[in-house]
Write a structure and sequence with these properties.
Largest sheet of chain A: none
Strand content of chain A: under 5%
Strand order of the largest sheet of chain B: 5-4-7-8-1-2-3-6
Structural class of chain A: mainly alpha
Pfam families (chain B): RskA_C
Number of domains of chain A: 2
CATH superfamily of the largest domain in chain A: RNA polymerase sigma factor, region 2, helix turn helix motif
Oligomer: heterodimer
CATH class of the largest domain in chain A: Mainly Alpha
CATH architecture of the largest domain in chain A: Orthogonal Bundle
Number of helices of chain A: 10
Protein name (chain B): Anti-sigma K factor RskA C-terminal domain-containing protein
Structural class of chain B: alpha+beta
CATH class of the largest domain in chain B: Mainly Beta
Distance between the termini of chain B: 153 Å
Distance between the termini of chain A: 22 Å
CATH topology of the largest domain in chain A: Rna Polymerase Sigma Factor, Chain: A
Strand content of chain B: 15-25%
Helix content of chain A: over 70%
Number of domains of chain B: 3
Number of strands of chain B: 8
Helix content of chain B: 40-55%
Number of helices of chain B: 5
CATH architecture of the largest domain in chain B: Sandwich
InterPro entries (chain B): Anti-sigma-K/W_factor, RskA_C
Domain Anti-sigma K factor RskA C-terminal (chain B): 92-248
CATH topology of the largest domain in chain B: Immunoglobulin-like
Order of helices and strands of chain B: HHHHHEEEEEEEE
Shape of chain A: globular
Radius of gyration of chain B: 58 Å
Transmembrane segments (chain B): 85-105
Order of helices and strands of chain A: HHHHHHHHHH
Largest interface: A-B, 64 and 45 residues
Chain lengths: 176, 262
């Protein structure tokens, strides 16, 4: 059993220290994902914390057969953020929601300067092809299905898988 | 199994994205445990995605802020205890209310019972009033009958051993009726009745006018009796219950002769 799996097990036993460690590992990611969806830092602050509270309160419902812990919490985050964008109050306050992608957020993100691999990430997104941008945006940030993507990009479903792999390969070369 | 081909297929990237079915998830999870290369691959994909998504975060939020909220939710979780108190109070209130309702119901039933009793008493009183009116009317009728112009009064005197007995007959020949005032007769003993006789004297022929079956229970002891006979005298004897064909002379208590010259 590796480090993350052990942490998750402790977290499920309501070990707040384990929870804090997992929070430090993933809170910025989750914050980023909800921010990419709602495009509002105040709302995303609140949402990100709600996601972790939800995870804490429903810790026992997670099992490794459902996928990675990160994937599980990522799912909670996407659902919470999408629910938020569908709420009446949100729609009224965000009538002209801009269509910017995660790449635009990364490029203009001043917070990123504090991260060690900021330059690498920015370089990566600048080099990223249109199809990779859409694949990563939809698969990881928005949680669209392969079928949705195949239709949007007008490529066969099997191609979605391999195309995405090559996009992620490039990312790994730069950030890892 | 060709592990390299499996990795190359891109399924693990979709696994991290959460795009696989539950069955596929279980499959990947199992393969990760069996093959360290697959496990390593998944960890690297995840790490890359974590890095990428981190880059879109507007700023870091400290865990302490969340910790407070979790503690707050714990306080919220304690709230049921206060609402427990509330629910106890609620129960207590409903018990008091129920007791109050029962008491009210009880009182209502009691009052209804009282009303019934009073209603019964009222009915009894009404009956008594009616009786009194009736008896007053009867008395008036009687008085009128006795006072009528054509009335013949026949005093019946005690006979032999019964000389303390007396009676009076008021005879209205137009009505073919006599009114017997038998106040001077004792109560009929058990198994006996008073029998009234109309008599002609020459020859002596007794004709029964009937028995007074309700003598003992009658209040004013005045009895209206039909009489179509040309009576010359009236007698009263004590006879066995049901009456007799002819008067038992030893039991002749009173006798009176009609005074034909008014």
């Amino acid at each position: 059993m590796n480090h993350i799996d052990a942490l998750v097990k402790q977290f499920q036993k309501k070990d707040i220290k384990a929870f804090e460690t997992l929070y430090k590992m993933y809170s910025n990611s989750i914050h980023g994902v909800v921010n990419t969806i709602v495009k509002d830092t105040v709302i995303s602050d609140e949402l990100m914390q709600d996601v972790f509270i939800k995870a804490w309160n429903n810790a026992e419902s997670y099992s490794s057969s459902k996928g990675r812990f990160f994937t599980w919490i990522l799912n909670i985050a996407r659902n919470a953020a999408i629910d938020k964008t569908r709420s009446k109050a949100f729609k009224q306050s965000k009538q002209n929601l801009d269509a910017s992608f995660f790449v635009d957020i990364i490029v203009s993100n001043s917070n990123l300067e504090q991260q060690t691999d900021a330059i690498g990430i920015k370089k990566f997104v600048n080099q990223l092809g249109e199809k990779c941008k859409i694949l990563i945006e939809f698969l990881y940030f928005k949680g669209y299905t392969q079928k949705d993507l195949a239709e949007t990009l007008d490529i066969p479903i099997g191609t979605v898988k391999t195309r995405n792999r090559s996009c992620i390969q490039k990312l790994r070369e730069i950030v890892l | 199994m060709d592990i390299k081909a499996y990795i190359k297929s891109g399924i693990l990237e979709l696994y991290v994205a959460g795009q696989l079915s539950e069955k596929e998830n279980q499959e990947v999870s199992q393969l990760m445990q069996q093959h360290p290369e697959i496990h390593q691959e998944v960890l690297e994909i995840e790490a890359a995605i974590v890095k990428l998504t981190e880059a879109t975060s507007p700023h870091a939020v400290k865990f302490d802020a969340l910790k407070d909220k979790i503690t707050e939710t714990k306080v919220v979780a304690l709230k049921p205890k206060t609402s427990n108190w509330l629910s106890y109070a609620g129960w207590a209130a409903s018990i008091i209310l129920a007791a109050g309702l029962l008491w009210t119901l009880n009182t209502k039933n009691q009052l209804e019972e009282d009303i019934k009793t009073v209603a019964t008493e009222k009915q009894t009183l009404e009956l008594q009033i009616e009786d009194a009116r009736h008896s007053l009317a009867k008395t008036k009728d009687l008085l009128e009958a006795i006072r009528a112009k054509d009335i013949v009064t026949v005093p019946l005197n005690g006979q032999g051993n019964f000389d303390t007995s007396y009676a009076k007959v008021y005879w209205n020949k137009n009505d073919n009726a006599i009114y017997l005032d038998a106040q001077g007769l004792p109560e009929a003993p058990k198994g006996k009745v008073w029998q009234v006789w109309s008599l002609t004297l020459n020859p002596l022929i007794p004709t029964s006018l009937g028995t007074i079956d309700d003598f003992n229970s009658d209040d004013n002891k005045i009895f209206a009796i039909a009489n179509t006979n040309e009576s010359q005298a009236f007698g009263i004897t004590l006879e066995p219950e049901g009456g007799s064909e002819t008067p038992t002379m030893e039991q002749l208590h009173t006798l009176g002769i009609v005074n034909t010259t008014p």
